[in-house]
Amino acid sequence: MSRSAAESAHTPVSVLLCDDHDVVRAGLLALLSGAPGIEVIGEAGSGEEAVALAVSLRPDVVLMDLGLGSGIDGVEATRRIARADTPGSPRVLVLTDYDTDADIARAFEAGAAGHLLKAEPPEELFAAIRAAAAGRSTLAAPVAHHVLAQMRSPRPTLSDRELHVLGRLARGLSIREIARALSTSEATIKTDLARIYDKLGVAGRTAAVSVARDQRLLP
């Protein structure tokens, strides 16, 4: 639920920070403490903690990292917070290092109000927080430009499972290691790879990873 103009004029935007790195949270806290009209009211080091604090503290905006180290990731935490959909429920603004198409799509599908990169200038972050509190969506300029380019240029669509397989392939894992990591058989992984190669129009591992990175399907 967005805040009214009258409320925004007199009440600072309350923010909950969620990042699993203490140093990052401390840096964000210091940065936002100097921003007029913005007040950090809580910090979470995990997705589960963010969900719980979003309910108890009822911030206007949750600043969410996607790559949380343990437990549920930022996308699932965003989904749980957005799913509440109660009066005064917070808006989730994703702040992350990740700018791949898959990460952007997953964040918005989960209900995120915006997606910013950690490399953005502070003023962009402040503006995005205020926009989210007011019920507007925000997309970092580099990400927005890329999304528009991709809309004009069709690209392969891989399933979440295929992206998991491809990501492990890119890290140099063997078929056996990928099968073990995903708790499935080597035959199943071979079938997945055949589908991936076909979608990407390649014949093997190296070319698949190269094309996937060019298409921004991998970090």
What coarse outline follows from CA principal-axis ratios?
elongated
Work out the oligomeric state of the chains in this entry: single chain
Summed up, the domain count is 2
Mean pLDDT: 84
- CATH class identity of the largest domain: Alpha Beta
At CATH's second level, what is the architecture of the largest domain? 3-Layer(aba) Sandwich
- The end-to-end span amounts to 33 Å
Number of helices: 11
Can you tag this structure with a few keywords?
219 residues; alpha/beta; Rossmann fold; Arc Repressor Mutant, subunit A; 6-stranded parallel sheet; elongated; DNA binding
Structure description:
The modification 4-aspartylphosphate is found at residue 65. Residues 14-133 form the Response regulatory domain. Residues 151-216 form the HTH luxR-type domain. InterPro entries: CheY-like_superfamily, NreC/VraR/RcsB-like_REC, Sig_transdc_resp-reg_C-effctor, Sig_transdc_resp-reg_receiver, Tscrpt_reg_LuxR_C, WalR-like. Strands 2-1-3-4-5-6 form a six-stranded parallel sheet, sandwiched between helices. Helix 8 (160-170) crosses helix 10 and helix 8 packs across helix 11 (205-214). The chain has helices spanning 5-10, 22-33, 47-57, 74-84, 101-109, 122-133, 141-152, 160-170, 175-181, 186-200, 205-214, and strands spanning 13-18, 38-44, 61-64, 91-96, 114-117, 138-139. The protein contains eleven helices and six strands. It folds into two domains: 5-150, Rossmann fold (3-Layer(aba) Sandwich); 160-214, Winged helix-like DNA-binding domain superfamily/Winged helix DNA-binding domain (Arc Repressor Mutant, subunit A), CATH 1.10.10. Residues 4-8 have low confidence and may be disordered. The longest helix has 15 residues, at 186-200. The protein starts with a helix and ends in a 5-residue tail after the last helix. With 219 residues, the chain is of the alpha/beta class.
